[in-house]
Design goal:
Length: 221
């Protein structure tokens, strides 16, 4: 899943991962995190997700990062906003209203850039990456978030031998292994979604569940 893979998907409009509505798990579990209005929420690998609009409607500022400028331009156009552009070492920052989206590489972001993020929402980001990149993502992007940051992570579980990713299966043991050191992962929900996923049924996948994790980062020493 190198950058070229994603750029091609966006160029060709092969973006089956994009949802026309808000992630239901976000709606169900976000308020329980107790993040105050006005706080900033980081949305890594954000695409043009409408979850960002939902978070803004809860009073949050949203900081996204996304490789594809097609996705980011589409997002702002869809919101009827014209962003101002500013170039930094991390990429081109697009800002308008409550949204700032960096067109750049999530793995490159540093602690200073993410210092104001009290929250994080990961849907189709961790699971978009193969195993070695997931380890890198946790060790760089998530590791740059500040102590006390809390958020939600949505994962998928299915027998990886039955279908190739993305999206990839990420089992509970891996969530613990990736985040158990610096974060406190708590499983909030697991649901069987195979009946609603014909692509997985057609591929012969025998079971498919989705999980929602609450993660809270320990204070930094
Ligand atoms: C499966 S999509 C999910 C998008 C979004 N989270 C959603 O729910 O619609 C993964 C996105 O991550 C972006 N991406 C992949 N690798 C990235 C990286 N290293 N830095 C920033 N964005 C990346 C891709 O361009 C793609 O838009």
């Amino acid at each position: 899943m190198e950058p070229g893979f994603w750029h091609e998907r966006w160029r060709e409009g092969r973006i089956g991962f994009h949802q026309a509505s808000v992630t239901p798990q976000l709606e169900r579990h976000w308020d329980a995190l107790g993040l105050p209005a006005g706080s900033t929420v980081f949305v890594p690998l954000c695409g043009k997700s409408l979850d960002m609009r939902w978070l803004a409607d809860r009073g949050h500022r949203v900081l996204g990062v996304e490789l594809s400028d097609i996705a980011v331009r589409d997002f702002f156009a869809g919101q009827g906003l014209v962003p101002s552009l500013q170039e930094t070492v991390f990429g081109v920052h697009h800002a308008a209203g409550p949204f700032e989206i960096i067109v750049g590489d999530a793995f490159a972001l540093d602690r200073e850039t993410l210092a104001d993020c009290a929250g994080v929402f990961d849907r189709a980001a961790l699971i978009a990456l193969p195993p070695d990149m997931r380890r890198r993502y946790a060790a760089t992007t998530w590791a740059a978030l500040p102590g006390g940051c809390r958020g939600l992570l949505v994962t998928l579980e299915y027998p990886q031998t039955e279908k190739a990713g993305p999206p990839f299966a990420v089992e509970a043991a891996e969530v613990e292994a990736l985040f158990g050191g610096d974060w406190s992962p708590v499983l909030l929900e697991r649901a069987d979604i195979l009946p609603a996923e014909p692509r997985f049924i057609d591929a012969g996948v025998s079971s498919l569940t989705t999980s929602v994790w609450r993660l809270e980062r320990h204070p930094r020493p």
